[in-house]
Amino acid sequence: MKIQDLIEPLNVIQNAIARVIGAVEAMSTQATDKTDDNPLTVVLKPNKKKVKSIKRNFTNQEIELMPKLKELHYRYRADGIHEFRYRRNGIFKSFASVNYKTAKAKALVFIRQISEQEKAFGSKAYVRFEPFANNYIENVKKVNVAENTYSKTLNRYHKHVLPYFRDKLITDVKAPMIQSFLNGLIEKGLRRTAEECFFLLKTIFQYAEDNEFINKNPVRAVKIPRHHRTTGTALTIEEEKEFIKRLDNTIYKTRILVLLYTGCRPCELPTAELKKDGFIT
């Protein structure tokens, strides 16, 4: 018999032993507890026939340092896997392993991170990108730009930005994630769109920083090549006179003259108003 023929059976035996050791290790540190209101009290299901109630191995000192440990729920699954689960404020995390200590260690790392976020931001640690960005665009952006500009911003936001960041926590969106998003647009040939999304995200996260939802605007660390727009050629005096002459008796004359002599942008024209003092706003 070759040594290769023994590898697979040995792996099966090793995994089986690991599950048994993990189960014994977990049960050896637990005491029976029948209270149903304790979130650390769970049902142990080593098989479908036997059901036992056990209390997980979190010391009073651990819980005192990190009260959120009480929000972890443990179960020993029928397939021999130890699993800790966390479900709060729209966050669902699972930490599993054939080894009890490994599963517990993974869960502890997450709980420590959540605890630190709560300490820094309180309930703000759970704010997701979609409701926060929606609020910014509706209540901040909209009232400070022309209607046409707002419409274009809203379309860009729903088409490109929101699908990528929708379910992310504000505190979880970092520079590499934003860089990857913008690089994807550039690779598709959407350089101008990438630049516009860059500035939109920059203002959204600056608003988050100003209101202490995050410590630092992640967009500051993002770099993208600027989109170089093609520009036209200015009219000569003779061309300008001929152009205005040809506008006579057309419905466009007033509009073109406003654009030509005020520097008004085409998107601003629909909101232009002539005041009594002779100024156009």
Task: Please sum up the structure shown.
The protein is elongated, with a radius of gyration of 31 Å.
Q: What does this protein look like?
A:
With 281 residues, the protein is mainly alpha-helical. The protein is built from 9 helices and 5 strands. The protein has helices at 4-28, 60-65, 100-121, 129-141, 147-165, 175-187, 191-210, 237-247, 253-262, and strands at residues 41-44, 52-55, 72-76, 82-88, 91-97. A 3-stranded antiparallel sheet has the order 3-4-5, with helices on one face. Strands 1-2 form a two-stranded antiparallel ribbon. Strand 4 and strand 5 (91-97) form a beta hairpin. Helix 4 runs antiparallel to helix 5 (147-165). The longest helix has 25 residues, at 4-28. The chain is elongated.
User: What is the first-to-last residue Cα distance?
Assistant: 92 Å
- Please tell me how large the radius of gyration is: 31 Å
- Strand content of the residues, in percent? 5-15%
Unreliable parts: 28-55
How is the topology of this model organized?
Blueprint: H1 4-28, E1 41-44, E2 52-55, H2 60-65, E3 72-76, E4 82-88, E5 91-97, H3 100-121, H4 129-141, H5 147-165, H6 175-187, H7 191-210, H8 237-247, H9 253-262
Helix pairs in contact: 4-5, 5-7, 6-7
Attribute tags:
5 strands, 3-stranded antiparallel beta sheet, 49% helix, 281 residues
